[in-house]
Write a structure and sequence with these properties.
This protein is an alpha/beta fold and 442 residues long. 45% of the residues lie in helices and 14% in strands. A six-stranded parallel sheet has the order 3-2-1-4-5-6, sandwiched between helices. Bound molecules: uridine-5'-diphosphate-glucuronic acid. Uridine-5'-diphosphate-glucuronic acid (UGA) binds next to helix 10.
């Protein structure tokens, strides 16, 4: 199929490369010339395992190309346009849909193929698809075309983006009536290979398809904040949240995944999406339906406060001029994304309080340097912990999880560690003479 992907950020670039891998002719469109140049040169604009290989393969096969200025001729041939632009947090937490509408108008301004299918993948407030569909109807009436919209939310995780795009848990389609139509048949052709592998396709109306995405991210955020609330109770009682999570997770109805207590969630999705959901529920007159999301957000923010307070406490009441090593800057391992990163917020706040913070991360340092020039960055953990009076593990990269407490003890000034992700062995670290504090681990 001939397809376009409008918006080549994390979601769009990976989607474009994976669609080329599935055998389609893909035109990636983005407004950022630098990003487009990099993508065309086979340079991934972000760290994502497996993506550079798919990108190169697509470029080499001639099936993948990126542009800032799509030619009307090229757009006319496109059978399926995917919209994958960002919907950043706007006023009062609501999603900013400027780029989304620009993408819709870009398609319409270029006299698209009269039977093109437009597929929405961006995360949007419920009700947006209906508005886009209404815009397409007006255009169809004026131009004698049959453009049709499908809402097809994306569930990929950073760090597993290629795998999640090619082998998702499920594929959700939202259509106007919630029933099959010719546009859905076109999308089935795009996804012929994953559907052929037996991945379930769930058909819904627009509102449900949009809600699936926000509900899924809200549920994940709720699970993390739930266990972090239990961590607070463990801190108040001397309990151990790791054992608690292990025990409740054995119940299959609860499950172990996303019960990792620690510094909480960050990134470009979960925090923004729960706020946008709350703002949308308010607009719809049902704020109470998701009022619990405010608590989820608050619990999450409190974990960062907890790490700061613990640092102050462990450094005898004052962090001023004390050397603190922060291990990790990305919001999670296997990513260089620093958006709303808990580890980075802790680093910046401790630095603002007068501590001498040194931070390291296997992938995120270039982005940290650009956004936080005031932070002192070093290439590896050995340099970071040199003479440190406190070590804070903020992101659970394997290299930090596997640290040998005896070896690290020989480099630091004082053996004090905060395990912000509860991934170190308290016993091993204590045996090596460390004052160890996890997050809700007695
Ligand atoms: C999330 C969802 O998991 C994806 O399904 C979704 O498609 C994506 O948002 C999106 O909307 O685009 P992602 O932001 O890549 O994916 O990250 P997650 O793996 O969900 O992790 C989010 C945060 O939660 C990270 O900071 C992570 O460290 C934290 N986390 C995760 C915990 O604190 N504890 C856990 O047990 C799990």
């Amino acid at each position: 199929m001939k397809i376009s992907v409008i918006g080549c950020g994390y979601l769009g670039a990976v989607h474009a490369a994976c669609m080329a891998y599935l055998g389609h002719d893909v035109l990636g469109i983005d407004v950022d010339q630098q990003k487009v140049d990099n993508l065309n040169a086979g340079k991934a604009p972000f760290y994502e395992p497996g993506f550079p290989e798919k990108l190169s393969a697509g470029l080499d096969s001639g099936k993948l190309i990126f542009t800032t200025t799509p030619q009307a001729e090229a757009l006319k041939d496109i059978e399926v346009h995917f919209i994958a632009v960002g919907t950043p947090q706007g006023e009062n937490g609501a999603a900013n849909l400027t780029y989304l509408w620009e993408a819709v108008e870009l398609i319409l301004d270029n006299q698209p193929n009269p039977k093109a299918v437009i597929v929405g993948k961006s995360t949007v407030p419920v009700g947006t698809a209906q508005q886009i569909s209404a815009r397409l109807e007006t255009y169809n009436a004026e131009n004698g075309t049959e453009l049709s919209l499908i809402w097809n939310p994306e569930f990929l995780r950073e760090g597993f983006a290629v795998e999640d795009t090619l082998h998702p848990d499920r594929i959700v389609y939202g259509t106007e009536t919630g029933e099959e139509n010719w546009a859905q048949q076109q999308l089935d052709k795009v996804y012929e290979i994953p559907l052929g592998e037996g991945i379930e396709r769930i058909l819904a109306d627009y509102a449900t398809a949009e809600l699936v995405k926000t509900a899924a991210n809200s549920f994940l955020a709720m699970k993390i904040s739930f266990i972090n609330a239990m961590a607070e109770l463990c801190e108040a009682t001397g309990g151990n949240v790791t054992t608690l999570a292990q025990a409740i997770g054995k119940d299959k109805r609860i499950g172990h995944r996303f019960l990792g207590a620690g510094l909480g969630f960050g990134g470009g999705c979960l925090p923004k999406d729960i706020r946008a959901f709350g703002a949308r529920a308010k607009e719809l007159g049902v704020p109470e339906a998701v009022s619990f999301l405010t608590d989820i957000d608050a619990i999450n923010k409190r974990r960062r406060d907890r790490a700061i307070n613990l640092s102050v406490q462990m450094l005898d009441g004052d962090v001023k001029n004390k050397k603190i090593a922060i291990l990790g800057a990305a919001f999670k391992p296997n990513s260089d994304d620093i958006r709303d990163s808990p580890a980075l917020e802790v680093a910046v706040r401790l630095q603002d309080m007068g501590a001498e913070v040194v931070i390291t991360d296997p992938q995120a340092l270039p982005l940290v340097a650009a956004a936080y020039p005031q932070l002192s960055l070093v290439e590896n953990w050995e340099a970071a912990v040199q003479d440190a009076e406190l070590v804070v593990l903020g992101t659970e990269w394997d290299v930090f999880k596997q640290l040998d407490p005896v070896a690290v003890a020989g480099i630091v000034s004082t053996r004090k560690v905060i395990d912000g992700r509860n991934v170190l062995s308290p016993q091993d670290w204590k045996n090596a003479g460390w004052e160890y504090h996890g997050m809700g681990r007695s």
